[in-house]
Amino acid sequence: MSISHRRSHIKWRSCMDELKSLEDNGMCFACGRNNHTGLHLEFSLNRQENRVETTFIPLDVHQGWQGVVHGGIIATLMDEAMAKLAQLLGYHALTASLDVRFKEVARTGEPLQVKAEVAKLSKKLIYARAVAGRADGAVVAEAQAKLMIM
Fold this sequence. Notes:
This protein is α+β, with helices and mostly antiparallel strands. Helices cover 24% and strands 33% of the residues. It has a single domain, classed as Roll (Thiol Ester Dehydrase, Chain A). The chain has a six-stranded antiparallel sheet with strand order 1-2-4-5-6-3, covered by helices on one side. The chain is globular.
């Protein structure tokens, strides 16, 4: 192992140790109750299917183009659903990678239903997938993520 590789490995371990001691202060943009500008998402867990669900009604402040929900908001909804699923299943995990595929337009004022489930579990990673859809059943976006178990 080279000296630079050892240094980066030591920094990574230090970072991981710091992340293990993170506390929730209610200011999460996606689900924090204390964040007045946040999304205030609430999730229900289906333990039999290892799945979470939430419904979010985007406002005009969540748009990109007029009347169209910003893609970053949609990505955030799915990322949070997968992270919340890991948390509710008893894991302390952070998103390591996120891949989002947009399929349809989401409009402000129209409810979005978001579902997430675990696709695979390994010793250090949770592989999850999520779907955001409209009330008419149209899939707005799909996501896959790897969450790093702390």
